[in-house]
């Protein structure tokens, strides 16, 4: 499975909350044997563990707003400095601001391009998806629709505390206001692609693979 420079795939998944970034990032990362780095998951783990960062982030997350750039850039700098990311990574939930996008560029050497894929889904579809989304209360795994218990640890499924309607609307408007600006930051690059997220999971995965291949070349 060759891909890009030295076989390294560095992928950023963009898209509004509920676009399927997490599901697709996990699937892609597993298929390529590279780590998935989700800043939302890292923050939720910190909240569950009750660390200082988790306590500080919880209130901001529960209100649907963005955690500060300095904290987020620190988290990602540390994560991307670990050796398992040398073979590549799928970054999901980051960057969400132009300052984060600029910091990401500064973190990376030029041995492989940064592929940026935006998953597009209409707002009314997102609101419906987020309201029925359930995660495992014990390990945080996001359950596909129709699942009754966690497939990873058997834990009970719960609604994310930021997936209720009022917070969902706030998160979508935060996305429209600030995160949209990073589309402007990336969309002129020849490593940027968009994928239609309003199709089956397999359909999105196929389009995502094709989009990455069209940037990096090679067959997959
Ligand atoms: P997610 O799971 O990606 O939807 O993230 C859940 C919440 O974590 C967001 O609504 C933000 O409060 C926070 N968060 C995650 N990633 C970032 C980021 N890159 N910048 C700021 N806040 C973030």
Which structural traits does this protein have?
3-stranded antiparallel beta sheet, alpha/beta, binds adenosine monophosphate, 220 residues, 8 strands, 5-stranded parallel beta sheet, 8 helices, single chain
Descriptive overview:
It is a single chain. This protein has 220 residues and is an alpha/beta fold. The protein is 47% helix and 15% strand. The chain has eight helices and eight strands; from the N terminus they run βαβαααβαβαβββαβα. The chain has helices at 21-32, 39-49, 52-62, 69-80, 98-107, 123-132, 165-186, 201-216; strands at residues 9-14, 36-38, 88-92, 114-120, 134-136, 142-143, 157-158, 192-196. A five-stranded parallel beta sheet has the order 2-3-1-4-8, sandwiched between helices. Strands 6-5-7 form a three-stranded antiparallel beta sheet. A hairpin with a 5-residue loop joins β5 (134-136) and β6. α6 packs across α7 (165-186). The model has no long low-confidence stretch (mean pLDDT 91). The protein binds adenosine monophosphate (AMP). Adenosine monophosphate is lined by residues 17, 39-40, 43, 60-61, 64-67, 72, 93-94, 96, 100, 162, 171.
The global form is: globular
Unique ligands:
adenosine monophosphate
The total of helices stands at: 8
CA(first)-CA(last) distance: 6 Å
Order of H and E elements = EHEHHHEHEHEEEHEH
Structural class: alpha/beta
The parts where pLDDT drops under 50 for at least 5 residues are none
Number of β-strand runs: 8
Helix content: 40-55%
User: What is the oligomer described by this structure?
Assistant: single chain
The largest β sheet comes out as: 5 strands, parallel
The percentage of residues in β strands lies in 15-25%
